[in-house]
Amino acid sequence: MFSGIDEVDWASMEHAYGPADDVPELLRGLASEDPAEREAALDGMYGAVHHQGDVYACTLACIPFLFELVVDPGVQDRGGVVELLTSIGGFDLDEDDEAEIDEDEIEGAANYAMAAAAVTAGAGVFFELIADEDPGVRLAAPLALATLHRHPVRVLALLRERLPVEPDEEVRLALVEAAGRVALRHRPLAERVGTWLGLLASRAESPGLRLAALAQLARCSPDGLPGDVVPVVSGLLREMRAAPDESGGPAESAAPAAGASPGGTAARDDDEPEPVASAETGRGEHVVTPTLVGQLRSLSAQENAGRGAPWAADLLRTLHVGLDDRVGDRTALLADQLRSPDRRQRIDAVRMSGGLIRAWRGPYEELVALVGEQLSDPEPRLAEAASHVLEELFQLAAPAADALAARLAADPGGWVKTWAGGPPGLGSTVKALARLGDARAVPALAAALEREQVAHDVGFAVGHLGAAARPLAGPLRRRLADVELDENAYDRASPLLAGLTALRTGEAAPEVLRVLRGAPEYRGEWLRTAALRALGAFGPAAREAVPELRALIRRPGTASATEAAEALWAVSGDADAVLPVLIEGLRSDQVHDRRAAAVALGALGPRAAVAAPRLRGLLAHEEVWLRVDAAIALWEVSGRSRESVAALLTAWEQNRHVRVRVAECLARMGPVPEGSAAAHVLRSELASVRRHNAMDGGYGSHDIHEDEKLLALCRQALRGTGKGSTP
């Protein structure tokens, strides 16, 4: 094995972490008889040689040796090597990708293409591996064939031939998944695959196999799904729960037994590495190693411990992705899952509910109430998952408000969470209730303010509570007065300043002024900004700060001068003093500072009409956010909407993330004329079932809140409850 490996000039190549001279050792480690060494080697391959999917020259040089490993029956854990080859060779560059490649990416693109060609050229070996004695290899081979082989008709025929004779249920599911992959990659075969999947979905003996067929149908041929897909899937889940697991008992999950670890495995009294089931196969033993692969396998094994069908959650996720915008069906299916006696199935359903609500608009009252019911379950992972989902929902969490309040009262230890590497933060239940504006969160916030170190997000929670949080003004003011103005001042003071700003606590002006005057050099600019925003929020109640603010505006063109001018206007209303400073701020080299100046000029309204030509000149700026801020300010200072609206609608189409800001302005302008371009974009937004900020593969904690705010603003703009405008 590995003939010629030492003749390769590995030292001349590089991987993600430097010279690739360690690659031969990694390859030999994959063939080791020691499971820990094999796992460490696989981790090294993914971590360095194929780092985050990248393909280097050393990755290409590894391909022949990886093929040697997968065809040698004496090598253990070959399924992992098959998966590695699939990942290395499975990257597709379509025409759009090729058109966007710049000079710096040419070499990387060439490597991807060469890797795909090299692995595809050897993909015939996977035909033999589909009947290998090792179930882990059989599990990985179908997807490798579907992804890499050049003859999809032959692959599909083999998958169908293998299914009736394959003894392992999980491998049978992989065969079905591979058929779906073939259909997605080769669309002319989608109808043929869909017909076969439809037969499996209705006739297969195993409920898991029928569910897998439905999931793949949803992905590649959704029109082939039965009209009653929700009751069908619910029935399959009931069958799977009732089926006996390997121990002979029903597959339904219960709470962990006494003495069990949080993952559901028995606690151990020694420090020996505990063998865990393979994340890929659910079989065999792997020693837990301090590698990423080892940690992922260990977490997966803990998560799946005791499950009769640990792959069911993946099938349901695949089904949900395939159902896409069929929000009603997905909601009904999740509601059924949330009523399941199987706690693990409910955990999966809670998490999938969060994913659904995060990406799609719809009526979720029943679903949210069911998520709220999980808060009282004694299984800590279930209650924790539910509270995290509800935390992201803001006003949509209203149907779970009482459940959140009950959970909060029952678990004061969870009001504040501490972390090893950062400041403490509020627990998700506290945040969820506060974001609803529910006064029952106030005692938890009061307790957080009494801790030695205040939670970093307490000020934001206060902001959502509004007047209900007025009792916290005193503690916030007292804690701010005690903050030492050293290099840690920003971390200590910023949550308190945020809370006082939200409450507009003008009586706290002396404490805020102390911070403004004594801000240290380290993060001092951030701290002064927070203090100036607080003073601006206090308005005339902060008049004792006027001398300080006048002194700060004497350096026009700087960020601090712009911020001080904005605060001075809010406190004193002295337009003559602040107008020159803000106009000068529009000339700043920093886009952020120009935006701040534009927003502040808009707040002056007609008193800043002299700035209209300069704001108009920014409507063609390359930075979309600056164009938006300038357009809004131009309308505010001139009272004329036509050119501002045109610029705002252009930005709306160019960048979906500006839409909330644009809609706020349109709502304030007053009734949007029926039949206008603005009315068209607003109605189109309201008609869309997809959230405007939904992302594939990522999300922000405020995405749902921002999208719901956008919808409300669109409706308000169309109703015409703003202050009106002139053409």
From TrEMBL:
Q: Which Pfam family, just one, is annotated for this protein?
A: HEAT_2
Q: Where is this region: Disordered?
A: 242-284
- Classify the source by domain of life: Bacteria
Signal peptide (from-to): none
Q: Where is the composition biased (Low complexity)?
A: 247-266
- Could you tell me what this protein is called? HEAT repeat domain-containing protein
